[in-house]
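# nightly structure sweep
# worker-07 picked up a monomer target from the shared queue
# config: single-sequence mode, recycle default, output format = structure tokens
# input follows
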Amino acid sequence: MRIFGRCLAALVVIIFNTYVYSSDFRMIILTSDRGLMVSEDNGNSWNELNRGLPELLFPDKIYTGSSGRLYLTTKQSGVFEFDKNNNSWKEINCMEFLEPLLLSEEKKYRGISAFSVCNDRNSSLLLATKHSVFFRQADTEWKELSNCSGENYYTAIAGNSGRSFFAGTSYKGLFRIKGASAINLIKGIPGESYSKSRKFYEEVSAIEFDRKKQGALYAGFNFGGGVFISNNNGDSWKSLAMPLPKESLYDIYDLKFHNNSLFVSAGPGIFRMDADRKWYSVFFDEIRELASEKTNLAVMIIDRSGHYPPLFYRLNAGENQHNKTGLTARGRKAIYAGAYSLKKKLNSYIGYIKACGFNSIVIDMKDDMGNICYLSKNKTANEIKAVKDYVNAVNVLKALEKENIYLIARIVVFKDKRLYQAYNNKYAIWDKKNSKPWKGNPGEFWTDPYSEFVQDYNIEIAYELQELGFDEIQFDYIRFPSDGNLQRCQYRFSRNGRIYKSEVLSAFLKKAKGRLRIPVSLDIYGFNAWFRFGNIIGQDVEKFAETADVICPMIYPSHYGKLFFSDYPAAERPYRIVLENTKRAQKIIGGQAVIRPYIQGFNLLSPTWGPDYIRDQIKAVHEGGSDGYTFWNASGRYDTVKKAFSGKNIDRKIKSAIDKKEKRIDSGKQHHGE
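# output follows
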């Protein structure tokens, strides 16, 4: 069978030469419904390759080692090695990979975020479960490496042993680990300055060695970062200038150095760079077609003739693999309304919604101080005197339902002054230095996210609001504190020192989702949908999306550092920030939930503020792939938003993008029986 390279002119800045051999391919595909399937005859026939694997399997990636060994990492079942002698997979996990039981009654493993077969003779292994790194020598037990623990989110790993390796992260660049030392390698790699003292680096997705040249290695970066080379053991890096548009935010799936060439598996296809640093388009379209007939996940391509190295490629990355309750939450265009102002300005809010062609409203039902903004019957809320008669919920809901407005109840979760002060500060985060309730920023009062009482209290409020008639529950401040002396925080309700912060919040979310029958949305920092952070304040958007129906990154251009995206003209910067943040959020969650950004409806540090500022944000949201948004204005003044949406002002291109998106949504709803 002869496989021909094809030009990818639509996606590539320049036209590649093609690089073609007649080869004998073995293909292993990862599917969402049949596990693993293998073809030994160039895709002409397929057989299952699941012996030894659990029945419920979420495969993630295949790796190759010495002598053709295969390894499989998964999202819930850990890691497996293929035993050729028995033609079967065998589990090679350890107890430290397990998720804490509070997340599920079933035994589940943490997702494997990075994996590598070492360059030593023993086929030693390196593995990361997001914030922890482990080493396994030959067939011995896994050992956690203490010099890699902390807040880093590990996304790539490669090396010779547990004492000498390189680790790539989601936003801190690369690290060279040797013994007890960990040196941060950032010189020359792609990144964006946030302020004079802070810079964030692009997510590292792959690391590869040039074994013929000492000190030479390559690194691939996601989100359009491309491929870089270092000739001095990582001390400095230079771009290899892949001729692909950065704006497409393509990912690098795999890097392999083979026969004096670098092979790159990237978003648009598979490419080769020769010794003269010329790029070629390698065979791909036919193999992709063969694999796509069987799967929408990924394929491992193994060339038995030796012309190509084994390469892993993701197919249709970002396709929605989950069917949740969130279909009714799609296409929602909303404004935020504070509970106290709603009491006086209900008709004004309805007027804004109608004038702008919106269809939804977010209402504070539990505010930043922990006040319950309606006459709740909840026992705890009344005991701690949190109930305030701000909103006549029955009358307000009737008025809004009459206008066919979708009703979203906002609940501030762990920032709660009322519960913090109640019961002798029993549920407050504690200060381990002075044995008093911990205080962060002035005016902020944080309850302990580990407390089941705190979690259940918020869930019961959500359930009560559901029964009152709200269409969606929106949790805000579903995070750990971010400001103040965080080193002094003591979480007295924690029963497991090995649990990640994101796992605590995910456990709360799963419990809430199990109690509610209406869609659940989450407000998160916009930057937490730009990079994978996870263990700093616990907002792991990828993990959240497994359960939540809607993720609402707060993408306010004014809130980003002054140097961030400063290469763009001031008038263009808001559009660029919202566009890229929306695109990144979509890529990170992989279609598991709806992305509905919060965007700026207020004038703060915004020299170009006005109707164009509003329209640019809307255009960016739709071009970024989202079908809804919420405008935030704490005072409830949306006059500038209203001006932006007046008939003569709205940009035709924006209206066209909105119309096309809504047609697709309507088609999807009909398809799902709505």
